[in-house]
Amino acid sequence: MQLQEADGKKLRMKRLDVVSLKMVKEASFPFETRTIRSPNDAMRLAKSFIGDADREICGLITLDTKNKVNAIHVVSIGSLNASLVHPREVFKLAILSSSASILIFHNHPSGCPQSSPEDIQITQRLKESAEILGIDLLDHIIIGDSGFYSMKENGII
Fold this sequence. Notes:
Strand content: 25-35%
Distance between the termini: 54 Å
Shape: elongated
Radius of gyration: 20 Å
Mean pLDDT: 88
Low-confidence stretches: none
Strand order of the largest sheet: 4-3-5-6-7
Structural class: alpha+beta
């Protein structure tokens, strides 16, 4: 530590970290299109990304101004019937990838894609956070065995 005088007193100088933040591409996978035009497109991309997971997986698709996918990311992996999701984790990658908009998705390992009260609550919280940050929340897709549930199509977003 360096000592520096201020008003005749010796002060011990502290070291402060200078940091940078980067996204790291972990992998890639083939998909027929990079543009999302409908909830069905988002569901097909999300389903191919998470596969037949036996636990609840919440993910994020980040999009540019022309709805082309910038990135896809696992936000959280939960248990058989629950997953913790916080706006902080969702929007961290959205900001890093310079997203104009985002889509949230998760699966219901039970097979039923119907939204729960908790699903609706976190969607509303994410919608409020998105408005503050100036990033559009386009939809929250819930994937089940027999289909999917779009919160946008059902008037929740």
